[in-house]
Amino acid sequence: MSNNIPPQTPSRRRFISVAAATVAAGSLSRLAFADTDQAITEVSQATGSAKTAIRPLHVHVPEPQLVDLRRRVNATRWPERETVTDDSQGVPLAMIQELARHWSTDYDWRKVEAKLNALPNFVTQVDGLDIHFIHVRSKHENAMPLIVTHGWPGSVIEQLKIIDPLINPTAYGASASDAFHLVIPSLPGYGFSGKPATTGWGPERTARAWVVLMKRLGYMQFAAQGGDLGGVVSNVMGKQAPPELLGIHVNFPATVPLDIAKALQAGDPPPAGLVDEERHAYEQLSSAAKKRRAYALQMGTRPQTLYGLADSPVGLASWLLDHGDGYVQPAAALTSAVFGRPVNGESAGNLTRDDVLDDITLYWFTNTGVSAARFYWESHFNLIGAANVSVPAAVSVFPRENYQAPLSWTKRAYHNLIYYNRLDKGGHFAAWEQPQLFAEEVRAGLRSLRK
């Protein structure tokens, strides 16, 4: 991967000034995120006017924390097995015990730590909060700047496999004209970003912060991409429509019309007059609302109660795993990845057991189970209600998404729809499960915005 910044560009001039500001900021400070005094990152200390400097970040989890993690996993007090033969009562005992076995015996955090440190990681303060981000520039001229936002229960770990296909498209059979400069931030309260100490850090404030971040990096025009909560933030960016935003691509679109949302909230059967794909989407949404949204209700109303996420690795893992796709919960790809084989005929795609643990372990070492949950509490609108976006928008619909957005609803929600495609594989964690296909969709979706 290349992060070379071509000469004579605003970004290079900004990089030089940033480097000077970083030196001026002082010596490296140790930032502790976990529940011990041992730090897991090194980042330049921000003081005074240097708070908005772009400071390099390096990750290293001290060995005692790795030992403590394994000790806690092995000390788990297990409940009895569920009384059903499916996942209708939650994450099955066999699934979480298999993950815990691998976590405490075979899993190697150092591998993902090396992957993260091989990438350009930075921190900068935006609106009073430290924001972590990965910034990788393409070697190709005229690459489009793109900010890609993860969701819950995800992190920047979700996007690692799409970086090279997007910055280096010629290596994957695409054209150099399809290249992107990538900025991949951690949401507030997630990963290596700061944890808000006051209320107000929801999708709207985050969307505005992303514009500040991109401009600080020297990008005066850019696009945004997201799935899950990242799709929510990208939708809000589209609704706010800052002049710098060229357009958005989402794989978790917000398309549900108000009358449909009201019927779902009331628990009504599908309204009369729906065409087949609308009825299918309604049934998916109805099933999810009745059986699969307990986690969202808890995080949206009482996130602070989730103290177990900070105390028990297995408690954290089971909470993060209990996120579904359009058919089952936990998501089929996650279950297959944990067991290392197709389950009920469902493939994990490119998702592996270690991928799943990389994400969960990042939450553990940063102690962000509760702070990440608060993002739901800060989201004060229907996350899938019609987005009402007028900027150019591209939508990719994956078959295993929580619901498959119908074209009719999508056209009503995105008033300048420049791309819509229904895929034949991939699910809610599309960038993780199908990184090559996902990259192709991002290229195709935003291609018409290039000059």
Automatic annotation (TrEMBL):
Active site, renumbered: 228, 376, 428
GO MF annotations in UniProt: epoxide hydrolase activity
An example Gene Ontology biological process: epoxide metabolic process
Residues in the signal sequence: 1-34
The entry's keywords: Aromatic hydrocarbons catabolism, Hydrolase, Signal
Positions of the Epoxide hydrolase N-terminal domain: 54-158
Family, similarity comment: Belongs to the peptidase S33 family.
PANTHER family xref list: EPOXIDE HYDROLASE (PTHR21661:SF35), EPOXIDE HYDROLASE 1-RELATED (PTHR21661)
Protein name: Epoxide hydrolase
Organism: Caballeronia catudaia
Classification of source organism: Bacteria, Pseudomonadati, Pseudomonadota, Betaproteobacteria, Burkholderiales
